[in-house]
Amino acid sequence: MSSENIISQLANAISSDALITDFSEREYFSMDVFDIDQVADLVFQPRSKNEISIALKILSETDYQIIPRGGGMSYTGGYTPSTKRSVIVDTSLLNQILEINPEDMYITVEAGCTWKSIYQALKPMGMRLPFFGTNSGSMATVGGGLSNGALFFGTGKYGSAADNVLGMEVIIADGTLIKTGQNAFANSKPHHRTYGPDMTGLFCHDAGSLGIKVQATFPLIYWPKSIDYLSFAYKTLEDSVAALSSVSKSGLTEECYVLDPSSAGNLADVSNIEGAKSVIKVFREQSSFIKGIKESFKMAFTGRSVIPDDAYSLHMVIANHSQQALDCDLKAATAIAQNHNGESIPNTVPKATRADPFPPMNGILGHTGERWAALNAKVPHSDALAVNQEIIKLMKKYKTRMDACGVWFTLLNIGIQQHSYSIEPVLRWLDEWPELHKRTAEPSFLSNFKEPTVNEEARKLVHEIRKDIIDYFASIGAASNQIGRAYDYLGYLYEPSKELLMNIKNSVDPKNKMNTGTLGFKDNF
Fold first, then answer.
1. CB-count burial class (<10 Å; 0-12, 13-18, 19+) for 175
2. Which residues of the chain form CATH 3.30.70.3450?
């Protein structure tokens, strides 16, 4: 069936306003932060889950691939079509908060809701999600986060988005609506996840390969009454990794992370507009006017100089329900950090990050206007140092070529609850800005730079290095978020487990139409 016939059939069944056929728009929706492959024949922007069901029933009788898309913040090919005969289902208009239930302590939202919109709705009520979003949460959506392993805010204590979701509604390839969690039972409320087998978990981290998420329910917690921040500098990678590991295992922090020396340049400078906004928001976040004045002046006078040159910096957010309890936690965390040769530095970084957790997504470019592409490995604490060292060793192998075409890298380490350690190498290079970047970053931010020229040599090298890193991660059995089309998940999975997953895929998507290529599902499986 031709694309014109498909579009006509869909337009007769759903609102024609929901269909985008303009090439430049289709190209925009077909690219992610890192790359683009093919341009989808059609972009579909549903206004309701019923529209998705109708469209998928029609598409199930065609050879078109179906590709779910959330906020567009993937950098591992999470929604980049591998064939033109694809329909991208952009869920960003499914963005309603359906229910906030403070008595039963849950919230239900449509999958196109951003983490920022949930945060803003709950904060005046003195409530929040346990894990409450990613750095890209002004654009990143709940559906994308659950599909790809969202983590950061609250991750030190509560884990990722998938660790905290109570239930979902998912539409599978033939248009059938699946409910998980307690919402799947008549006369029940969606307050509980695991009555029987955990079907909610089945659809977590699936990269959208098992269905389109349209709704999710999360637990609520009260905002802690007392919050404070700590930062420490380390002269060596070894000390910083040991400190982060020890702090993470202590369970004291809501967030704990280490920036390598090269990352300091990407921090906001209070001498510019972005930094000034951070100072203002720190002021607004303080519990009293006097404290606000004090903290804002402290931040203004320290600026970017908070981190010594060539230092690894550990940053912590610590919260509790009384100042007395918080003081005990701060004392304990300080002792741990200093036990690994940490030098106390101003806590500007975690304080500013929390004061404005979801700023405009200017971070889609680096502080020199560079592009970036991240990878991720979650490893046991005992492997953390060796994996960091191996990544650095691998980069040294490429150093001459990297220098020649202007590629460099940074490292971010994050503690996940008490049992997992995340390592994120980020490759950076100057290159022309794709349309996604131009539309995402604010014009005032882009005006700080002259757009770089095309740098195909750097782009090819980044692809090569990424493959090397991904192969290394696979060789050590590391877990990764944002599997997308970058990681061959199925290729390394224990064979009986692989067969089980393929049987599940065959049950919900027998024609392999749903985001083909993600998780390692090929055209024929």
1. middle
2. 226-355
Half-sphere exposure for 106 (CA within 13 Å, toward CB): 20
CATH 3.30.465.10 in the chain: give the residue spans. 97-222
- Domain 3-92 matching CATH 3.30.43.10: the answer reads yes
Q: May I ask the CATH architecture of the domain 97-222? A: 2-Layer Sandwich (3.30)
Give me the CATH topology for the region 362-475. Answer: Alpha-Beta Plaits (3.30.70)
Q: Judge whether 453 and 194 are in contact, CB under 8 Å.
A: no
pLDDT (tens, 9 = 90+) of the chain, 525 residues, equals 666 788 888 888 888 789 999 999 999 999 999 999 999 999 999 999 999 999 999 999 999 999 999 999 999 999 999 999 999 999 999 999 999 999 999 999 999 999 999 999 999 999 999 999 999 999 999 999 999 999 999 999 999 999 999 999 999 999 999 999 999 999 999 999 999 999 999 999 999 999 999 999 999 999 999 999 999 999 999 999 999 999 999 999 999 999 999 987 666 443 444 554 544 454 444 444 444 444 444 544 454 567 898 999 999 999 999 999 999 999 999 999 999 999 999 999 999 999 999 999 999 999 999 999 999 999 999 999 999 999 999 999 999 999 999 999 999 999 999 999 999 999 999 999 999 999 999 999 999 999 999 999 999 999 999 999 999 999 999 999 899 999 999 999 999 999 999 999 999 999 999 999 999 998 655
In sequence order, which residues have a C-beta less than 8 Å from that of residue 166 and are 6 or more positions away?
A: 106, 181, 182, 190, 191, 192, 193, 200, 217, 218, 219
- Shortest CA distance to 464 belongs to which of 519, 393, 397? 397
Which residues are CB-contacts of 179 (< 8 A; sequence separation ≥ 6)? 167, 168, 169
Rounded to two decimals, the pTM is 0.91
CATH number assigned to the domain with residue range 226-355, chosen from the 4 options 3.30.70.3450, 3.40.50.300, 3.30.390.30, 3.40.50.150: 3.30.70.3450
